[in-house]
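User: I'm putting together notes for a lab meeting next week and I want to include a structural view of one of the chains we've been expressing. I don't have a solved structure, so I'd like a prediction I can at least talk through. The sequence is below, exactly as it appears in our construct file.
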Amino acid sequence: MTTPHLLPWADYVDLLKPAEDLVGLTFDPRSEQLRAELYRQLLMNLSQGYFLYFQADADHPDWAPFLNSVYLLQPNPDDTYLLAPVRGDGVYRVTGNRGTVRVLTFSTGAHMMGMADAPGRNFGYFDADELTLGPGGELDVLFSTERPPGHDGDWLPLHPEAEFIMVRNRAYAWGEEREATLAIERVGAPALKPRLSAGQIDERIRALMAGFTQRLSRMWLKYQNAALQRGLINKIELADFGGAVPAQAYWQGIFCFAADEALILETEIPARHRYWNVQLNDELWNAVEFIQRQSSLNGHQTRIDADGRFRAVISVDDPGVPNWLDPAGTLQGMIIGRWYEADALPIPTLKTVPFKELRRHLPPDTPSVTASERAEQLRTRRIGGQLRRRW
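Assistant: Thanks for the context. Below is the predicted structure for the 391-residue chain, given as structure tokens.
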């Protein structure tokens, strides 16, 4: 195989230029704000992609930060995601401690979003609570296509075409629950990780700058546009994300309102469930800032009304209610929710009301939240978010 010719740096930078065309896929291609946000998103993708392409390989795997409060191209705010490269013909050992997060899961697949033109493939989804955990939460599990002869410990199947193992740490009580601490290694791999050749670096730079950085944004801009074309403005539908999380049902819609309006989100809550949440995304499918602002809520963080229903208010200005979903100035974006291991899948509603008349459309016993109470609510959120292990 001929070693690719290493390009001048300027030629690699030129590989990013076609990304400018993505502006045409935004909700408003004429918006200077959205163009600026897109440029920011592309830089975010570059940063994330460096980890994915350069940190590790299938012979010497390591956990890369995948989605979190910095890499915002639509994480669940309650989740932090770790990604390790693997190969289906390998045997991988994961050791460490489960921690105390609400849910800890492993999933395997190929064609992770942004890393291939073809849609991603999901091969397996595994709950850490089904493993044999030690008295302090210790775990030790092998991943391989077949159980190794003589191995009587925990084992999980690895599809022959698998390219990654992904971890989800899902917290309900931010900062109180402890994230898992995990190590991954390939059994029987060479002890020393080799230096990358010039050809390998060239190949990965091309994949990052001409592929991943643009592909990831294009994928989700098209996804939002499809929702817009289905007429989902201020409407909610159940969504299918390709079986990525079999125990989880998603619901989604596009929120759109004026600065002097508010949207009331209302839903029943399944009688039995392990977890649920709701979050706001901006016009580019980024999760709206969720450490410094209350743009998401989960079942631990919410107030349920006396009739057993959940009601939240989406508005630019603080409505003075506990369940404010703050869009951080965004007047149009997507709303995403999750029912996890639930016995029912209610579909929420969105109702537009004048902001100044909001109280007329809420239950009379809806509490008022003062400015000082909101500040303390946000402080608790901010500290809890920073105490989590996010990468």
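A couple of points you could mention at the meeting. The two ends are 37 Å apart (CA to CA). The first strand starts at residue 64 and ends at 65.

User: Perfect, that's what I needed.
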